[in-house]
Structure formats: structure tokens, C-alpha cells
Amino acid sequence: MTEHMEQELSAFTAAILEDGIIDAAEVAKIRERVYADGIVDREEADFLFALNDATSGADNDASWQALFVEALSDHVLKDEISPGTIDDDEAAYLRSKIEADEVVDANELALLVSIAATGKGAPDAFNAFTLASLKAAVLEDGIIDEAEVEMIRKVIYGTGGAGGAAVDRVEADFLFELSDATSGKGNHPSWKALFVEALTAHVLEDEISPGEIDKDEAEYLIAKVEADGVIDENEKALLQNIKARATSVADNLKFKFDLFQI
Question: How far is C-alpha 89 from the geometric centre of its chain's CA atoms?
Fold first, then answer.
């Protein structure tokens, strides 16, 4: 048996961190050690977080992020107690580890996105944490690029997110907040497409009034569109899409269609 399989985790950690980065060969050793028994236990999860915190921002091999996300997703989603879902204990554990250094780095964000995309459910507070972390990362440079649009898509439509595969009100609010914060910026064109698609689904694919815009939905849309005093390109495109697809629209929104020349 090779040395890295026999070492105490503390010694193995020290050996990996000696040069301050995690290279491809080290990732292969970490994978072999963590998956030796086919299960990623809590001690091994702690080990992965410790390595990530110590090398966050370093020029690690790309395979490190892939392993970090895979192994920690397996730890919380392939356990015997709550397979496929994030229970309260797992949510508290993940948040404590991610927030320990007061920074949600790229690997930790990728983990949150993966869990939202592939899990079957999580506590509301954990879903809110995921959305807040994603929002902060997206808005850091003030624009939404193509990779960020893909992350947003995975979280919004993921089975483990706030509304499951549907787009719920929390996620709709999140989309409007991102749009308002980046309005007029050089966002990737796919952001506008996702904004329109997801928010149209929110109001037209609901269980209460499918295909229609009822009075409550109309009031919600009006409040959000008028919140910053400007009807921007994304919001106009959203209203145009809703007008074209809805089988009926409440009078209060019809009035705004005329006012906004939709």
C-alpha cells in the first residue's frame, strides 16, 4: 500500500500543502484516499474543506474543484440518513464550513450550485444561503457573464433548489434583483433569455392559474418592474413574452401594457 493510503489524515494534509497548491497527481491521491471504502465520511469531508481553505485562490489543477464538488456532494447526498436531500444537520455543517473563513470561494460556490442542481431538496434557509452566495459572486464585477448565467440556470431549475424544478417566488425575486443590479451593463445575451424564460414560467406555469396572469401575479409583476422607476430592456422583453403567451391577463396589467407600449 502506498504511503498516502497509510498516513494519518493530518500528515497527508501537511504533505499536500507543503508547496501551497494541489496538482493533478495530488488530486489523484486524494481521490484514492477519500473513495477507498466508497464512502465520503465526515472526517474526510473535514479534510477536503481544510485543503480547500488552505489553497483557496492558488493555482490548483482544475481537477481539484471537480473532486471537491463530487466528493462533498456525495457526502451529503449519498448518506444513509437522508439520501438525495440536505437535512438540517448537513445544511448546518456545510454552512459552518463554507462560512468559516468568511469567503465563499469558487469551489464552494460550485458545490452549492451542484447540490441545488442535483439534490432533491434542502431546508429553506440553506436554499436562501445558496441564492445569496450566488448573487454576491455574480455581482462582484457588476456584470453577468455566460458562465454565471449557466450557474443561475442550474440553481433556478435544479431539483434541489428553492422551488424544485419550478421557479418559485423566492427565485423570481432573486432574478429581478440581479436584473435591476446589472441593468444596462454588458451582460451576456443569454442572461436576458434566461430572465424572460424563467419569470414567464413563474407566472404562467403555476398551479393556481396556469397559462393566465391573475390579479395577484399582475400586482407582483407591476411592483417588480416599476421598483427602480425604469422599465428596462429585460423587463420589456418579459412583458412582451407574457402578453404573447398568456391566455388571459388581469386588467391591472393590461393597463400597464398600454402605458408601457407593450
Answer: 20
